[in-house]
## 1
Amino acid sequence: MNPKTRDMALFLTLHAVLAVSGCGTDTWERRLEDAVTSPVVLSDGLAFHASTFFGVTHYLSASDPERKMVAWQTRLPGWDAYQRVAAADGVVVAASREYLRAFAAPSGRGLWRKDIACQDVEALDLGGGVAVVQLLAEGGARELLMVRATDGNTIERIPIEPDMPAWQAGEGVYLGDADGLRAFDRQTGRLLWRSILAAPPLSLVRGDGTLIVACHDRLIGVALHDGRVRWERPTDGQVTFRAQGSLGCYAQGAELRAIDTRTGTTLWLRRVGGVVRPPIVSERGVLLHTAGGMLLALDRTDGGVLWMMNAGAPGLLEAASEGFYAWLTPDAVRVVDLARREELDAIPAGSGPEEGGSGAGIVSGPWLDISGGWLWFVDRFGSRIVLRDLGGRPSPASTVPGTPVAPAVRQEVGTTNSTGEDAR
């Protein structure tokens, strides 16, 4: 088959849509002959992803999940698969180790192409009219490339120290270094402030007016606007910190601790049987999926148990947003409606294609997320994209017990609830 005929056949195949039986009327599944190589990004009512056909030809696709159809698709240049996609404000950008390529999100019209020639694209973020690309350069050095989204012109290139975190929030770009933290203006690349810290940062999380810096043995709260250290508290080794607004949580051993991100003060402490996984913090409360299989919803103010249900073992991946929680098991994606405290129809994880499919050695999935009222899932082979409209409320699964709380569960949750402990 000559290349033009093959590409046309592939294009037509990609537009074929297969309905999923037993997954609810608001679920749309696309089975692909090529393989998805990037997470799905939802913006402006469209779902974008990159794909490859045996690592030879690469594509960027935009799907309309409401109408269950492919809006547009375009071929991408180069030999390398595109593993990063970002979309915002009517622009979608795809990144490979060779190129950045930008398109008009509604139509797929090409806007610009930029050569980047690097070993790896570690991260891609788009917002405020600027694309921020975290690169591992050919010589092994890391850098942050800031590009104007409308024309591809370079705003600034900023070196990143080895093994240091980088993070984008609103108009700011934040980089860790051996001495602390630096903040740059996203529009100009200008250094805004530098904060000298007691230990090198390992990760960054945004709180209420603060950046919470996780170090090897402490958490440090830094003011977003000027870099001033607001508070500091020790931890028993490195922790995974999660935050939403003024509430931040982290787990150590069998304890879950909540702090005020503005002051570092302890708000409450909850002891749970077994090892506690990193919590999910939202405006509705704190969600905890224990190693023992219990799903607990905790009150933001005091850590009290609002409700709990036996959800089975935690997943390989998890996502929570807009009143829903989803997790991936080896067999299925399971979804819980947090407001109604009930499980929805599961989405089969699928067995995927035979070894050596079109994405062999390239696809780094699976991926799972909830965004813009939609749950999306890409299997580990990159051969299936599933989009579920959570706003439309699929039918609840009939296999879930009517009451979410089992009496035996109560033995797993302790009653300790300490408040008022100051940050040290």
## 2
Amino acid sequence: MSATFEPAVAFGALLREHPDTARFYDGCTAEQRQAILHQLSQIRSQEELSSFVAHLPSAAL
């Protein structure tokens, strides 16, 4: 089994751990969600993703 980093899967898990971020994401428009998901493709590590999720509510979309 491969230990491939899957940002989209990890993003979902981190949303469950960060209720403020989950509420922010839930309130986004479809276009904003698409922009967030597009950014996930540029994230290369779990640490980078954790930081992205922690700071998402303060991000300017």
